[in-house]
Write a structure and sequence with these properties.
- The chain has 14 helices and 15 strands.
- The chain is α+β, with helices and mostly antiparallel strands.
- The chain folds into 2 domains: 204 residues, no CATH class; 112 residues, Arc Repressor Mutant, subunit A (Orthogonal Bundle).
- Strands 2-3-8-9 form a 4-stranded antiparallel beta sheet.
Length: 383
């Protein structure tokens, strides 16, 4: 049987033999032009990272701890979680949108008293995944094998904790370890375009994780762990379908929905401009984020608009407007018109320039005049 991480494609799946994956990180780093490009940013690298095609569109962190508590049975078990959403590819030659279904099989985590309880990945795991992807973008700690389509990240618990603290997201070492166990034990299954008989992707979020023992950690808090990142991330690195975005802004946001909206805009809104606002509907946000859980529509609208207001405070949005569609008194949908700030427009222009220059470099074309030292500040361009 073909490893789905190696054969994954949104077109018909290839059945050609693929190199056997390893359950240990490679002893020696592989030379990879694609990985060199992935780790090169246009701007202040400390506050930049990458959005990932398809992977970041999957609503895999959407069930809150509060909802999980209401779903567990008396033995601490959770049902398999399923959610349907639409994926809008940015890669040329792909359909405008694809119907998808994600299935999340919860992680069984051992408690201190020896009992077990099941968890879906949620807010803490979302943040730690972002930190791990940021660490992966530093070549001291990341490895990528282009031929095998594998990406590994090395990290310590202290590295994750310090990064979270620096971004105002403090977590204890025990909380971080628990989140890592949830990430490595949760199984994500993805079906695309209604192909119920052809499962496109099945994998934990982190694979083949190697850990240090408690004694090793106490002796050396900097002792390193390692994990293989999802095949969809490796595929995006190989194909240059990721995009630069403001990781510093993302980590400053306090709500999951604000972070989802920020990443959605960063990846999809490539033409960001004051004269060309971004449009989103309430129904599409509810469907694609999976984060609006209230039974009352008015409560979900309030939650969404609170997230939009947070994006205004973070200088992502300048303004937003809404137009409701009602049937009698019932809200059927709301169209939101989002106008970006000049900061966001400038970030988008830099992300576009980076993507264009990197693709030219990979394909052997002479670079266009858009590199980081040549790109004009958007504020001056639009004056």
């Amino acid at each position: 049987m073909t490893n789905p991480e190696k054969s994954l494609s949104l077109r018909p799946m290839s059945r050609a033999p693929t190199p056997k994956s390893s359950n240990q990180p490679p002893a020696k780093k592989q030379v990879s032009k694609q990985y060199d490009l992935f780790t090169t940013f246009f701007g202040d690298a400390q506050n930049l990272s990458n959005t990932i095609e398809l992977w970041d569109a999957i609503p895999k962190y959407s069930v809150s701890p509060r909802v999980q508590n209401s779903l567990r049975d008396e033995k601490g078990n959770l049902p398999v979680h399923e959610h349907e959403f639409l994926y809008r590819p940015t890669k040329e030659g792909m359909p405008r949108e694809l119907a998808c279904k994600v299935t999340v099989k919860p992680a069984s985590i051992k408690n201190s008293d020896g009992t077990r309880m099941e968890f879906y990945p949620s807010t803490d795991e979302e943040l730690i995944e972002e930190v791990l992807k940021k660490i992966f973008s530093d070549q001291q700690f990341g490895m990528h094998n282009t031929g095998q389509g594998e990406s590994w990240v090395r990290f310590s618990l202290n590295m994750i904790q310090k990064e979270l603290i620096s971004r105002g997201k403090t977590r204890s070492i025990d909380e971080i370890k628990k989140s890592l166990e949830i990430l490595s034990s949760t199984i994500i299954e993805l079906q695309l375009a209604g192909e119920s008989k052809n499962l496109e992707y099945t994998s934990p979020i982190l694979t083949d994780m190697t850990r240090t023992t408690k004694a090793q950690f106490l002796a050396d808090p900097k002792s390193m762990w390692a994990a293989r990142l999802p095949g969809l991330i490796s595929k995006s690195v190989n194909e240059l379908t990721y995009r630069q975005f403001n990781y510093g802004t993302l980590m400053s946001l306090s709500t999951q929905l604000a972070r989802w909206l920020h990443k959605r805009m960063s990846h999809q809104y490539t033409q960001a401009n004051l004269m060309d606002p971004y449009h989103l509907s309430f129904n599409s946000i509810q469907r694609d984020s999976g984060l609006l859980h209230h039974s009352r529509t008015s409560s979900n609208v309030q939650l969404l608009e609170k997230a939009l207001e947070e994006l205004q405070k973070a200088k992502v949005l300048l303004t937003y407007e809404k137009k409701e569609t009602r049937l009698k008194k019932k809200i059927m949908d709301i169209i939101y018109t989002l106008r970006p700030t000049m900061d966001f427009v400038d970030e988008t222009r830099r992300a576009n320039a980076r993507q264009r220059d990197h693709r030219d470099e990979l394909e052997g074309r002479p670079p266009q005049k858009s590199g980081p030292h040549r790109l004009k500040d958007t504020r001056r361009m639009l004056q």
